[in-house]
Amino acid sequence: MNFLKEDNSIISVETKTDKKNNLKNWYAIYTKSRAEKRVFERMTEEGIEAFLPLETVYSKWSDRKKKVKVPYIKSYVFVRVNPKEIYTKVLKVYGTVRVLKYLGKPAIVRDYEIKNLRILSENEAKSIELTSDIKIEVGEDVEIDKGSFRGLKGKCVKVNGRRSIMIEFEMFGSIRIIEVFAKYLDC
Prior knowledge:
Layout: E1 2-3, E2 11-13, H1 16-21, E3 25-31, H2 36-45, E4 49-51, E5 54-60, E6 65-71, E7 76-81, H3 83-88, E8 96-99, E9 101-102, E10 105-109, H4 111-122, E11 141-144, E12 153-160, E13 164-171, E14 174-181, E15 185-186
Antiparallel strand pairs: 1-2, 2-10, 3-7, 3-8, 3-10, 4-7, 5-6, 9-10, 11-12, 11-15, 12-13, 13-14
């Protein structure tokens, strides 16, 4: 299988064996501007397995503040389908624009990237509290094995003493960073 990058890339390109086996893979579908939620609902109604990662933010108006859920990655909805269904079913849903491609073919989003997005979107906490004496170095790949962010994989970008680290997660050119206390990590 060909990859966009050798290191922790998000996207891989489907191979001929994937097409022959008609395996279901995750694909990123680009939508019209600000239409992600409506496209997600339409795909679900059509029986397409879809995923729209959302995060809660505070929106400020002149008279009040309100918590609203917005897409983690703007203008993208993720679908898990056979490669043939991209053109026969998915792109026929109103509000879709195109599938994300690499080298002229639909790019496959790896399962662990979808898993990371699910974990991040389900947990609104920005940090986990606990102390530890585990040594982790900048640039090291880490996986959280306890707590609400369990299963999340990323790269250490900053070490705050021996207690906590900042972990970076790359998603389609967008980088998210969370603070995690070292006891929850599997290095």
